[in-house]
């Protein structure tokens, strides 16, 4: 094997697509997926590649510093792609401490382990931290987030991610650790956990349940197909400039209400239901506290420096996503049984 790469959070939504991309594209890399398998981690996401000779799974919690160091000592990775995180804003409002533990302490544990085993000889080594556009805060009606936009997080989730970004940069500035960061906009696609807007609405349309729209529904997000995020991570991990960060997005802004209406339209067509059926499920509910009005990414740096372009349009990506959920009802049933129901009742009662 030419290289060993540790990918954290590889059983989650985005992580599973990154693991698949690397396992398939680089058969000469040994890919070690480290994941604690929280409610969001699901090895079913990786069934198609779990028997590949270059794929290994290690169940570990990144908040456990000693365990993480021992895994790094055993596998001696050349690179780390760090995605493990608590990722849902609403959960961060109910339980912020879990976000500090995993997103901040967990990240520092990984940085310490990388620094320790690389012992200041950083030749050929790289720590890629996967972050979010939410660290930049909220935009008004105009403007875009660039790489040098000032950090201004508002939710406990974005505050914890911002903190982890600062630690990654601090390890570069203080110890010379070779790092890159990516800050990506909202992802959607296959295997998306149905606590987030798009898969939650797909699930509820299938079951004839209300589609909860926070506030007036005019909040705006910039959506990128998850496989295009995985491709951007591949590009930046291999070609990004040491110490730099890259914003990733598809110049694809939607107000939540318009997005949900588009989803309703496509779902009615695919399910053979009369037009307007799913629209009737739209229900305005209490707003999320501290709700950021608008996120929008200026992705020109990654485009101009590394030639990055998303591979699908939003229409194509949404259609692929809906088809995947319609063809994988068993996956959806598994993840929406048990704990999910309790969460759902508490969040939307
Ligand atoms: P996810 O919640 O679907 O998956 C997170 C994964 O991390 C799960 O497999 C979970 O088991 C694992 N994990 C959680 N805590 C852990 C711990 N203490 N130790 C080890 N593993 C742990 O998240 P996602 O949506 O796939 O996001 C992945 C990364 O990408 C996160 O860092 C997130 O901040 C970032 N990101 C997400 C989006 C998005 O739209 N979802 C956008 C930009 C950036
Ligand atoms: P979400 O998918 O949770 O992603 P994020 O908060 O990280 O952007 O939410 C996307 C948008 O949809 C956000 O503005 C909140 C809104 N939203 C709803 O209106 N209803 C819901 O039930 C959920 C989960 C989100």
Automatic annotation (TrEMBL):
Domain of life from the UniProt record: Bacteria
Cofactor: NAD(+)
UniProt-listed Enzyme Commission number(s): 4.2.1.46
Start and end residues of each NAD(P)-binding domain: 6-319
Signal peptide positions on this chain: none
Record InterPro entries: dTDP_Gluc_deHydtase, NAD(P)-bd_dom, NAD(P)-bd_dom_sf
Membrane-spanning parts: none
Reaction(s) catalysed (UniProt annotation): dTDP-alpha-D-glucose = dTDP-4-dehydro-6-deoxy-alpha-D-glucose + H2O
Pfam family, one: GDP_Man_Dehyd
CDD domains xrefs: dTDP_GD_SDR_e
Keywords: Lyase, NAD
PANTHER family: DTDP-D-GLUCOSE 4,6-DEHYDRATASE-RELATED
NCBIfam families membership: dTDP_gluc_dehyt
Family label: Belongs to the NAD(P)-dependent epimerase/dehydratase family. dTDP-glucose dehydratase subfamily.
The protein, known as: dTDP-glucose 4,6-dehydratase
Species of provenance: Sphingobacterium griseoflavum
């Amino acid at each position: 094997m030419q290289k060993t790469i540790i990918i954290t959070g590889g059983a989650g939504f985005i992580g599973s697509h990154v693991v698949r991309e690397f396992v398939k594209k680089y058969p000469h890399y040994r890919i070690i997926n480290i994941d604690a398998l929280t409610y969001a981690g699901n090895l079913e996401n990786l069934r198609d590649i779990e028997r590949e000779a270059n794929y290994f799974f290690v169940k570990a919690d990144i908040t456990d510093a000693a365990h993480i160091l021992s895994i790094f000592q055993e596998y001696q990775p050349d690179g780390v792609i760090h995605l493990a995180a608590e990722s849902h804003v609403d959960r961060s409002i109910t339980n912020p401490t879990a976000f500090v533990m995993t997103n901040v302490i967990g990240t520092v544990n990984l940085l310490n382990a990388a620094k320790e085993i690389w012992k200041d000889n950083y030749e050929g080594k790289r720590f890629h931290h996967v972050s979010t556009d939410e660290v930049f805060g909220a935009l008004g009606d105009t403007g875009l987030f660039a790489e040098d936009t000032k950090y201004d997080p508002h939710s406990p989730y974005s505050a914890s991610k911002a903190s982890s970004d600062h630690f990654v940069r601090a390890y570069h500035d203080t110890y010379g650790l070779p790092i890159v960061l990516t800050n990506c906009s909202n992802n959607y696609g296959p295997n998306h956990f149905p606590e987030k807007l798009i898969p939650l609405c797909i699930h509820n349309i299938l079951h004839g349940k209300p589609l909860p729209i926070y506030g007036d529904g005019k909040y705006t997000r910039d959506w990128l197909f998850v496989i295009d995020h995985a491709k951007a991570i591949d590009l930046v991990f291999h070609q990004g400039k040491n110490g730099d960060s890259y914003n990733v997005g598809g110049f694809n802004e939607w107000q939540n209400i318009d997005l949900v209406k588009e989803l309703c339209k496509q779902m009615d067509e695919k399910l053979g239901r009369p037009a307007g059926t799913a629209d009737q499920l739209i229900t305005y509910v209490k707003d999320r506290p501290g709700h950021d009005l608008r996120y929008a990414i200026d992705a020109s740096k990654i485009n101009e420096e590394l030639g990055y372009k998303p591979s699908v349009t939003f229409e194509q990506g949404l259609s692929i996503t809906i088809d995947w959920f319609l063809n994988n009802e068993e996956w959806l049933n598994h993840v929406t049984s048990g704990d999910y129901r309790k969460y759902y009742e508490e969040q939307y009662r």
